[in-house]
Hints:
The structure holds 2 protein chains of 2 kinds. By secondary structure, chain A is of the alpha/beta class. Chain A contains 12 helices and 19 strands.
Amino acid sequence: MTFTGLPGWLVWSLVALSAGLLAVLHLLRIRPQPRTVVTVMFWRQAIDAAPPRQLLQRLRALFSYVLLLLICASLLIALGRPEPAAQGGDAMHAVLIVDAGNAMRVDGPSNASRLDAARESARHWLEALSPRDRVALLSAGPIPRVQHQFTEPRAFLDRELDAIESSPLPAHDEGALRLAESMLAGKSRPRIVYVTGHAPSAEVTSRLSVPLSVVPIGAARSNTAILSCGFVPSPEDLLRGRLQVRVAYYGAEPGEVVVEAWRADGVNLMTQQNRLDNGAIRDFVSEPMLANGERVGVSARLNDADGPADRVVVALPLRRSIRVQIADDTPAPIRLALQSDPAIRLTPDAAQADVRVVTSALDATGPSLLLREGGPTTTEGSSLTLANLPITRGLDLEMDACPAGTGVLGNADVSLIRCGGSSLLNFYPPLPASSNRSAARPPNNERAFATIELSSALLSGPTGIANRPAWPVLISRCTRQLAGWSDGVVSLAPDRAADDPLWAGDHGDHERASVMPVDRISADLTRAAIATELPPGGGIWASLPEWFQMLLWIGLALLLLDAALHIRRRVP
Amino acid sequence: MPSLFDDDFIRAADSLRIRARQVPAGGRHGEHRSRTLGAGMEFRDFRSYTPGDDLRRVDWNLYARSGKLFLRLFDEPRSLPVYVLLDNSDSMYFETPPRADAAKRIAGLFAAIALNDFDSAAIHPFGADLAKPLASLSGRQNVRRVLGFLDSLVPSGPTNLVKALRKFALTPMRAGLLLIVSDFFEPQGLDAVADALRSVRHKIGFIQLTHANDASPVGEGEYRMTDCESGASVEVAMTPAVLDRYRRAYEAFNRQLDEMAGRRNAAHLRLDAGKPVLDQIGELFRNRVFVT
Lengths: 572, 292
């Protein structure tokens, strides 16, 4: 056993000496004070008239002594923090990891953040250690960081802990745990203590070779978060579409989630309520609205007033008619196909055009539909197949037994379109999903703008492809793609720095969200399974409430004062 | 050691008197009126002449008027011996200030008054036994001698008032006024004192010397009380209940002493030994006269 680092024999000698000293003090205290009087006559009468109390007085004196011993023992234990010798008396080496990820920004019930609570929990744990233990401090943000190397527990607490700040990105548990493990290599009695608002995955923790204690911070709360916002164009009118809000919910019980959207002038665009199960993700979709580029506020909240809310501001896509510049000699199938699309407006002005129909690559000064004269054609009897591309998907344009000379078209989304072994016609450059007029450098440096090549042979010839109902749809799709339009959901980047609702809410219309993003919901669900053991080596004193500690100190001070006064009376 | 008796004390004694309602027969000429009609200076009555009476006492004016012989009668002043049985035991010297100082002062006061009034005074100190007394003295000129004797007294052992009284009672002396000056903390108890007083034929006066702590002892906690004379001890926890019982015992003691004085028709004065004696004797001396 160790006691303030002293060997056992010395400790027991001190204990015996202390007990003896206390016994002497106690005996001095309870001994009657001598007093000489003129006569004891009246005192005898006073005592004779009283019932005998000797036994009670002796018991009281004994109880007083025992109480004195207990108080002194408690204080000695508090000061000395005795510990049984373990592993030859080696000191414990621990790495204390404090979660500094964005989840620690969540406000707790007292408006302090989880990180504040983590600091306090870390301090409490450090105070329970013995002076011989050594502790290193890590902060677990997206990149784990060593705050302090191994040192005596009480050496560095406040400053280093206060220096830890939460990151807008999630904590990298595995990185922090691996780093801690490496720091503990070769150390005696290694241990990792992770103070966090979530549980590291079992997959990560199971691979550790060092004992791990997880100290959970924060209580699980029902909450909801906006995972993403999107604009879903209406199939019949790409100038209009619906606002899609993808929301996740976490809670011990299913909860009512209310999603609202409103325009900048406060006009309500959407109010929907749905009951979601724990961990559920659901899309809330509004009525069709114009893609007019305006900013729209979106919020997701729980139906009970106390629940935290998530709020974002997104900008709707700005869509207008696609201006397509055609020439007088633009073939009729092309012209008619373009005219059939209400989203397309033909214009002779090339400067204002979004898309141009050209016959020469040299005229492609912007996104262009290039009608190539000639081009690869099919051989007799070959089949025309179209790759399963977004612009060709679902279109009935395939043919078997193409007559010779059938033109083909290519799309750079897929590397090859083959028809009877003919070569490929590529797009330059590959078109991104979102509207993007920036041009990538083509491999042959010939074209700098998005271009779809059409063989003019498709417009003539015996296939009659241009007469098929799918033909104007193909042309419309090509044009829309060149204009940067997408039939699919347009992702609306919320106006916040990171796709994480826990990002500090001091940007524009945001609030500080007290919600958990979906990637942590599963972790929250396992919160109940988190081990809550405290590390060994703590003193008994630390487990006592502070008010009780104060009472013991006061009690000892009073007892010593009382003993001193009794001694003084006996010493002239 | 400075004297307990200063000039102011002696002057105070000059102005005080002792008057006895009843003066015992016999004795010398003194200042007290006795029952006997004698040849004193104060006219009291007439009586018829009988043969053999002193013709110098015949009132010739009355004879001239009445033709009959009458004698003038005057009060016969007699002396009142004052005996002071002074407690000189160890307990009287224990405290600060010692009760013995007040006892000696009151004893000296009464002795001086008696001597100033042409009475006799004697001091009989006692402790474990009657000590050597200062035998009866008369005359003003012996006042200082008495006071000097009192100044010279030293403690004479533990208290035994009973023994002292019994011995005093056996001592042949003229009946007079016996003043018992003591704290009356007789180990044998007041009953034994009362029993011993039965054999005393003098008029009695009790002068009880007290201290403030007698009635209300001060202290807290556990004590071992040791008697300053006998060395007997008793352990006491000075709780409020014990203190209350103590006070009741002390009050019972005082009541018993009062009753004892009442039965003997004796004066009873309680003197606080911590205060000046002369300031406390007003109870005894009305119009500067102590009537016994």
